[in-house]
Amino acid sequence: MVATIFLDVLFVLYVIAGIGLVLYGFNCYFSIFLFLKNFRKRRKTDKEVLEDFLKNLDIGKLPKVTTQLPVFNEGTCVERLIESICAMEYPKHLHEIQVLDDSTDDCLEISTRKVEDMKQKGYNITLIHRTNRKDYKAGALKEGMEKCEGEFLAIFDADFVPEKNFLMHTIPYLVMDREIGLVQGRWGHLNRGESGLTLAQSIGIDGHFVIEQSARSWGGLFMNFNGTAGVWRRSAIEDAGGWEGDTLTEDMDLSYRSQLAGWKMKFVFDVIVPAELPADINAFKSQQYRWAKGSIQTAIKDLPRVFASKIPLKVKIQSFMHTTHYSIHPLMLFTAISAFPLLAFGHSRFVNLPMWAFTTLFVTIALAAVAPSTLYFVAQRFSGSVGWKKRMAALPLLMSLGVGIAVSNTYAVLSAIFKRQSPFIRTPKQGSSTVVKKIRQKFPKITFLELFTGVYCIFGLLKYIDARVYLIGPFLALYAIGFLAVGILSIIHYFGEMSGEV
């Protein structure tokens, strides 16, 4: 009796998890729809606004801009970053640069030396160093804002290399429309072709920026600042209550608070800022952990205000889907784990469905399952970069990667829900310098759980094949491949880094 009740409850939870995955999957189609609907019109309008501004430009009337560079132990990147910022085409007397360096290693010495060098060349550049790291990146940006001179604040992480025209292609939108609080640029990729891992990541990031950010901005939905490659109006930050460090995604949190205060966010599709992708799987997982936990923290913090506000219902629903997107990972992990006991001990729950119900279920699941891949395909097609067809060959790798990090990201989601404290950990990057030693990461113990889950899914897959329940089999196969691939690669990269090979 107890076993039957347990299986019934497990089956209900399994169905709920499946419905959740279907909803997040179909939301991809909604994003694609908004993107395709507005793509040509909005790009044309943005181009016309920019051309009109530059045509009638009076250099003397340009606003003062402060560019903030939050850095922490990133000596391999900081010189390249400072040089690219100083090379921007904007009047020197109107461009203040703040290097917000909280470093505890040789990075501080490198950035100090570079700042002094650029200051002697006539640039308005200063270095602000904190020793307490209160509120991490949010705290550094907050302290910098208290001392800055600019009406607008451009922000770049250490691994980004903006083009010279970045400010001249973003500031005009803020000047022309005083309701815009943020202009966000699109991320590009410095090392897309370095490995299969970086290639897969680039496809995933393109999906977010090309489709999702465009859809949110053009569709009148709430969007988020991505923490870098964007320009804020100072008053928009102040109206929102300023930078706060109670989430790991201070950028998303500030974006939502700012939009709730009435400010608009703008995504500029054609302003592309190249950045470095993590070449190490463990660094990538660490980055994803921070994004996953921070997003859920933001959802817990800001969604009550979103639901209580007078914004349209469509915006509220999409805000929920946006901030809770990383919930797909615990949903995937739960379906992977619960599939085996349900088949082994509750076989009838899967095989006694009427044919119409089974067909409907199959079609629905199939459409939802291919939705992310469809989004990535459309993103590559409209990204404007050459070689997109060849890049699609890496899509299976991206799918495996997306599944494989479900264990780590589930831990991140649960950590956010149960309010467990964790530090803001910067994602290690290779950069262009060999002066500073890389920070050796701790062995990722969660790798053992990833490997165990992968082997467990293999047993589940064999059971489903034996029972001829083919609807669930392909998903278990993908789960097994994903968990094992990420687990094995985590070990290879960890020991490869120790031996200097990665």
Taken as a percent bin, the fraction of beta residues is 5-15%
Order of helices and strands: HEHEHEHEHEHEHHEHHHHHHHHHH
Overall form: globular
Helix content: 55-70%
> What is the mean pLDDT?
91
Low-confidence blocks of residues:
none
The strand line-up of the biggest sheet is 3-2-1-4-6-5-7
What can be said about the biggest beta sheet?
7 strands, mixed
Total E-strand runs: 7
Number of helices: 18
Rg on CA atoms, Å: 24 Å
Q: What class would the helix/strand composition place it in? A: alpha/beta
Through-space gap between termini: 54 Å
Question: What oligomeric state best describes the polypeptide chains here?
Answer: single chain
Question: What report would you give on this structure?
Answer:
With 502 residues, the protein is α/β, with parallel strands linked by helices. It contains 18 helices and seven strands. It has helices at 2-55, 78-86, 107-120, 136-147, 171-176, 196-218, 234-239, 250-260, 281-308, 313-323, 328-345, 348-351, 355-382, 388-391, 395-404, 406-417, 446-467, 473-498; strands at 65-71, 95-101, 124-128, 152-155, 180-189, 230-233, 264-275. The chain has a seven-stranded mixed sheet, sandwiched between helices. Helix 1 crosses helix 6 (196-218) and helix 17 (446-467) runs antiparallel to helix 18 (473-498). The longest helix is centred in the first third of the chain and has 54 residues, at 2-55. It starts with a helix and ends with a helix. The mean pLDDT is 91.
